[in-house]
Amino acid sequence: MLLYGAGGHAGVVAGIARDCGKIIKALFDDDLQKIAVAGTPVTGSYNTELFVNEPIVIAIGNNRIRRRISGQITHCFVSLIHPSALIDKTVTIGTGTVIVHGSIIQANSRIGNHVIVNTGATIDHDCEIADYVHIAPGAVLCGKVCIGESSLIGAGSCIAPNLVIGKNCIIGAGSIVTVNIPDSAVVRGNSSRVIRLNA
Ligand SMILES: CC(C)(COP(=O)(O)OP(=O)(O)OC[C@H]1O[C@@H](n2cnc3c(N)ncnc32)[C@H](O)[C@@H]1OP(=O)(O)O)[C@@H](O)C(=O)NCCC(=O)NCCS
After folding, report:
1. DSSP-based three-state secondary structure for 134
2. Which residues are tagged catalytic?
């Protein structure tokens, strides 16, 4: 298979590929200063004519860049799922998506194309994750949460049940989200408030 991207996230994706028994035949990056990822040398800029029958994954964490590059690629996309991820049989996963070590995806959730479900993230039942979303390490999505295209759900954040997060949002690391979030919003902090005292 092929990888596009030679930054930090690419090292994670290369590890997943290795643990899935895949061999990386070429590694593309437009930054010619980058030399190698996990022992695999960088081939150079993306080249449509190399390994035309090999599938590719865009191993770039930034949602906007991943989205832009996906429109320039002619190789077919493939998804990578680390063997340690726990994914219910009813879950659907799009193409080009990467499911990282230890993540959990529960019943009837739908995961789009070019999504990252990063280390140890939890997506509970009936969630809908649109294309180019990044669910960062340790984030928790409760049941029936919808995440709009290209949004970043920050590391260790928690999205309460039944909420809708718009497109192109950034949910800051450690946020507790208890209300719907409009498109393009940047959110941080713990918005929870005391609603009653525990007896
Ligand atoms: C929320 C976020 C988008 C804010 O970024 P920013 O606008 O550049 O904010 P700054 O770093 O300039 O910080 C501004 C203030 O917000 C605070 N802050 C930043 N991130 C915060 C967060 N997640 N929660 C609470 N406060 C935060 C800073 O401490 C700073 O406070 P101060 O004004 O009192 O000094 C960013 O910090 C963040 O959490 N991004 C998500 C990171 C992530 O999980 N990435 C996944 C990688 S795999």
Report:
1. strand
2. 125
